[in-house]
Structure to design on (156 residues):
């Protein structure tokens, strides 16, 4: 069995790179870490130091010629990608900001019963579904991590 230790990055197909870069930098707050020609832009949350000339990324945008089909939400593929915010109040403020920027908000903020994350669903300009989440649990995530600091192994 393979044992990943983290999710490294997510790549989105987009139809208009200029529009998408503007959305992900000005609305989501990501930083451009590099470009590969005109068709790929690498972005991160801002956690990496400058000057290494490396394109460390959490998100990449790939220019494609065709948009999503009308029934894309009924087809296999990625359902949505979530970004964690610091507090539930940040999620509520994000909802107002997104609306003020004419971003398509799919659901007003709610709290999921399965993990107690306060969340908000919205779309990027190409219809990729995104989510902002923040835990409502005191001490999250530290109080909910395994005490040994290790990833769960088979049979544990």
């Amino acid at each position: 069995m393979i044992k990943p230790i983290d999710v490294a990055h997510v790549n989105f197909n987009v139809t208009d790179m200029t529009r998408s870069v503007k959305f992900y930098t000005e609305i989501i707050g990501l930083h451009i870490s590099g470009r590969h020609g005109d068709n790929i832009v690498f972005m991160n949350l801002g956690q990496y130091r400058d000057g290494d000339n490396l394109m460390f990324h959490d998100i990449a945008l790939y220019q494609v010629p065709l948009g999503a089909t009308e029934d894309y939400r009924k087809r296999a593929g990625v359902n949505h990608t979530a970004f964690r915010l610091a507090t539930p109040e940040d999620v509520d403020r994000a909802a107002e900001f997104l609306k003020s920027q004419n971003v398509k908000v799919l659901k007003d903020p709610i709290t999921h019963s399965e993990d107690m994350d306060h969340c908000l669903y919205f779309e990027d300009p190409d219809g990729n579904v995104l989510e902002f989440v923040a835990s409502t649990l005191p001490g999250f995530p530290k109080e909910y991590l395994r005490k040994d600091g290790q990833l769960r192994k088979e049979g544990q």
In short: The domain at 1-65 is CATH 3.10.180.10 (2,3-Dihydroxybiphenyl 1,2-Dioxygenase; domain 1). The helical segments are 17-27, 88-100. The chain has a mean pLDDT of 91. The first strand starts at residue 10 and ends at 14.
